[in-house]
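Worked example 4.2. Below are the chains of a multi-component assembly; read each line carefully before continuing.
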Amino acid sequence: MHAPERPAAPPASPASVATQAAVDVRRASVVYPSADAPVHALSDIDLTIAQGEFVSLIGPSGCGKTTLLRVIADLEPITSGQVLVNGLTPHDARLARAYGYVFQAPALFPWRTVLANVMLPLQIQGRDKAAAEAIAREQLGRVGLTGFERKYPWQLSGGMQQRVSIARALGFEPKILMMDEPFGALDEITRDGLNDQLQQLWQRERRTVVFVTHSIAEAVYLSTRIVVMSPRPGRILKIIHSTLPDARTLDMRDTPEFMALAHEVREGLADGHGGH
Amino acid sequence: MAAPLTFSQRWLPVATVLLAVLALWYAGAIGLNRAGAVERVLPNSHPNGDWTVSDLVSVTLNMERPVLPAPHQVAADLYSSTVDWPLDSPRNLLFHAAVTAQSTLVGFVLGTLLGVVLAAAIVHSRTLDRALLPWIVASQTVPVLAIAPIVLVILGSLGFSGVAPKATIAMYLCFFPVTVAMVQGLRAPQRIETELMHTYAASKLQAFWLLRLPSALPYLFPSLRVAIAAGLVGAMVAELPTGAQAGLGARLLTGSYYGNTVGIWSALVLSALLGLALTLAVAALERLVLRRGNAA
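Applying the procedure described above to all two chains together yields the following structure tokens:
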């Protein structure tokens, strides 16, 4: 097995030296046993994500981007290596409610109203009902869903449902937001709108975001750093630092700078397929 | 969703079947009672043997102890036995229906609780899944008619009498459909929903209460409708071996002792109505609980 191209460590900005890394992955591997040869879902992953970063994991299916996210979220165990989230093991970080997780599907409970769905994590944490309701209303307002509190999930469009699930993930103010292709099932127009909202949300609150996607435009538009991954074995090919200013608008997608970044990502993905 | 049925769309088929059943019933009553009428009744009223067919028909439909009583006889008996006596009189059929309904409902509630608890234990423990499920299935292959006297004797020797033994047998029939449906229902949450609760670090109890139980409700209610009907059967069977003085089952038994076929039939019709009422009550409960939006 040839050694994967080891990505350079991110340049230490003054902020990230002072504070603890939000996510620290060291030589992490995930191997699934199988009948013929073991499957290396993740092989020797090294990745450090500083507080307040917006990091996208991009790559073709089977590259382990979702597995990496699930490992960080304690939804899957690692075979070897080390993963720290806010300095804790993923298990302890999960118990400490360090992160909010947005799945590919909204996963709203159909028997609960929109408001009650957003209140769910707060209820589990044993918050006072009135406080939980106030928080939920505020979060729904932030994703532009004021007035839909009493609706049931099936009365909402797919894009609105996913916004509810984002509001639900943010309600308990997690330091880290993990998103697994949250807009993958939506049409492009809806997706653009939600990307814009997510951008503004990150601008406002500067939470650490780990974002899995298979859309180059989405990754470039949203991220401060783009992690390009490749399958068989699942590994990191390249880490691209965004040169775009932090505050972004959808118009920027037509600038040469944006195009150049997108090109770089596309080339990185092509490398993984043995192209040029 | 289909448009609500109009009155005639809803009731016309039911009325047609009812008429057909009544016609068959009358025809059957004439046919089955004919021999008895010719042998026992007509010789008294017409000593010369000069009775006509219409005499025969009117006699077969109004005999005192017919093989098959005619619908109007049953209706008249039902009416007189529910109206002519005070409600707390053992001669009032409604009194017996209430006795049976009581043990059915107590057994139903206990059986539902037992069913839910067993299902919860089974879905939370692989060991219990393997250990309990075969026994639960086997329990239902034992005929309730054989179990009932044993339960009555044992509970009687422990000092339980009245409702308790009958409710126990009703419970014995009730819990099974509930357990089976709830095992399926509690396992209904999708992986993504379970993982969502996992990311919230929800306790097992919270996951049960907030996810598993609500997911299982659409499975629970159909099983409750089966359970309450089974519970009614259990309660009535339990009334037989005691030679119980009260209950619809007891009425069926005394009716057959004394050849009171009309009494048997009115008890039978009333138990059918009771079963219908109980099932409708469960359906109403279901609508009340699930009304809150679970239409997805």
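Take a moment to check your reading of the output against the notes. Residues 108-173 of chain A form one domain. Confidence is low (pLDDT under 50) at residues 1-18 of chain A.
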